[in-house]
Amino acid sequence: MFDINKILRPNIKNLTPYSSARDEFKGEASVYLDANENAYGSPLDKDYNRYPDPMQYQVKKRLSEIKGVPPRNIFVGNGSDEAIDILYRAFCNPGVDNVIIVPPTYGMYEVSANINDVELRRVPLTEDYQLDVDAIAERIDKNTKLIWVCSPNNPTGNSINRADVETLLANFSGLVVVDEAYINFSRQKTFIQELTEYANLVVLQTLSKAWGLAALRVGMAFASEEIIEVMNKVKPPYNVNEASQQLALEALANVDKVNGWIKETLSERDKMVLGIKDLDFVLDIYPSDANFILVKTTDANGIYNYLVQHGIIVRNRTKVELCEGSIRITIGTPEENVKLIETLHSYKG
Ligand SMILES: *Cc1c(COP(=O)(O)O)cnc(C)c1O
Question: Can you give the residue ranges of the Aminotransferase class I/classII large domain (predicted)?
């Protein structure tokens, strides 16, 4: 059913990608005078005078070992936000095509659609923050190219029912993008293992959250080889800089440390829930599969401002549909969490 050539933009199908000096000569040589770099070095301790590997081979090799997928099924971007933008640019004809988002969800799907002049069709989640599969099916037409599903979902924190995502994958002839930015905290297993099953699946992950590398801007997309090839064609040639590639590689050797933090974050999340659930102004705390909780309160603006006065910043989500009265709290260190709990206990509405 799925045919990538039916959903690719014609200009991208016919695109000849930029061919860099590093693309044209791939072997080992002793003298490189092909890229107009500074051959003397960099005014830094470390040499950054050479362009980075455009295909981030070492990083992909390590990711491949960790994730259990071949490097040819991995795209590495300047954050997963870059992968989001590239999917629009590769598959959505501006002013013609449309995509489906399921609010409340991550804001960049909408911003990127607007930047690329792509129509956005909003199909809200149900009251319990799950997919309304029938309503999604009704909004799909021949110009619908992408469906964005964030699981665990930001800002609600819950995972999306797997069977519903599989229904979309099996019946939709465009791409289903499953954004797993918070998968490391989830009880659900990743969709990466389903890549062999569904040719129209794209899974996004990132080193920005559990891996603690938000500043480096390294995100990944996992998909079929033909989808990854298209994404590589569209991306800027040197989209992930050398310092980020080297540091990501170093960090990826520390899986144990990251797993330790994940365990601690989950136990801190439980403590946070216990610490605030009985407060008068807390109406509900939604079950979370992520490193944050969405808390429904009687007065999100009042609580947000009170916390700001005490030097604590949370995310006020009260203006987001289906999140009226809610604030999103990231789980911090034990000390930070205690400070937040104590501060909330002294709040008098
Ligand atoms: C934080 C976040 C991202 C952004 O990831 P980067 O790799 O830092 O660009 C993507 N998706 C969701 C749902 C997020 O919450």
Answer: 46-343
Question: Is the C-beta atom of 214 inside 6 A of ligand 1?
Answer: yes
Yes or no: domain 256-345 corresponds to CATH 3.30.70.60:
no
Residue 85: CB within 6 Å of ligand 1? Answer: no
Atom of ligand 1 nearest to the CA of 206: 7
The answer to whether the CB of 154 is under 6 A from ligand 1 is yes
How far lies 337's CA from each of 271, 274, 340, in Å?
9, 12, 5
> At a CB cut-off of 8 Å and minimum separation 6, what does 283 contact?
296, 297, 298, 325
Task: Give CB contacts under 8 A, 24+ apart, made by 300-304.
Answer: 300/324, 300/325, 300/326, 300/327, 302/347, 302/349, 303/327, 303/344, 303/347
Query: Distance from the CA of 191 to the center of ligand 1, in angstroms?
Result: 17
Distance CA 179, CA 153 (A): 8
Answer whether residue 32 shows pLDDT above 90. yes
| Secondary element (H or E) of residue 309 | helix 300-309
The CATH label, of 3.50.50.60, 3.40.50.2300, 3.40.50.150, 3.40.640.10, for the domain at 4-19+48-253 is 3.40.640.10
In tens, the pLDDT along 46-74 reads 999 999 999 999 999 999 999 999 999 99
206 CA distance to ligand 1 centroid (A)?
Answer: 7
Q: What is the pLDDT of residues 120-162, one digit of tens each?
A: 999 999 999 999 999 999 999 999 999 999 999 999 999 999 9
Instruction: Tell whether pTM > 0.85.
Output: yes
